[in-house]
Each structure stands twice: as C-alpha cells, then as structure tokens.
Design brief:
149 residues, 13% strand, HSF5 protein, nucleus, HSF_DNA-bd, Arc Repressor Mutant, subunit A, 23% helix, 4 helices, alpha+beta
Amino acid sequence: PADINPNNFPAKLWRLVNSPRVQSICWDARGEGLIIDQQLFEREVLGTGPGGDGASGAAGLFKTKSFASLTRQFNLYGFRKLGETSSAAGGGSDGGGGCPGPLHRFYSPHFLRDHPDLLVRVKRLTKANKAKLAAGLEVKSRPPTASQR
C-alpha cells in the first residue's frame, strides 16, 4: 500500500517473502505465517556465513548481520515465533523443505499472504504504542517521504 513506509521492517519483510529471488523465506502452505531457513537466510539476506555473497540482491536490506537481532525485530513488531524445526520436518511454500538449517516459523495476524492491505496494522510495539493499543487508540505509522514513494 502507498501509505506504508518502504523502509520499515514489515515492508522490507513483505518484499523479501514475495520475491522470487529469495529462497530462504517463504509463506507457509496457508499463507498465514512465514518460514525462514536460518542458515540460508544468513547467507542470502544478511550476507554472513559460508558463501554469504548476498546473490539474491537482498544483502544489506536489514541493518544487522545477526539472526538474533532479526528475531528481536519480529518480536518488536508483534510477530509470534511458532517454533523451530529441522528442514527434514518439511517447510517452504510447497512443504518440501530441503534446506539444512533450522526452520523458524513466525506469525502475525496482520501479515498474511493475500492481504497487503493489512500491513498498515503491523506496528512497532514500543511502550507508548502498547499503551495506545491497550486504550483502543490508533497508532499511526510514519508516512513515506516523497523520495520513498
């Protein structure tokens, strides 16, 4: 959506999961959650680990090279970690898996495959934002600048 700042975490995450060039993150089979292959993500997106060349064009998208910091961002934006499994247990949008690393599953009720309109509801959960949400008030996002549109 036009009113989403393309530089905020949810917008970057949306671009990644919907990019055909990025193989380390995908929607679950129902499009209600994300599956991330940690080892592949570290190489492909964070540019770390063996062969971490960022060939997907996504390297440097986040200001961190640490998967733990990325997990913290998920938590700050209200995502829940649904678990961690090995790829042998399945994964990927086709359920096939095939990656050696641990698979992390994340969920947010406002981050769904066929509903980009819900992205405006994914908010950073600061102390002030939590208080506003608890009071039933709207939490506004910083609008994109002219150069970001």
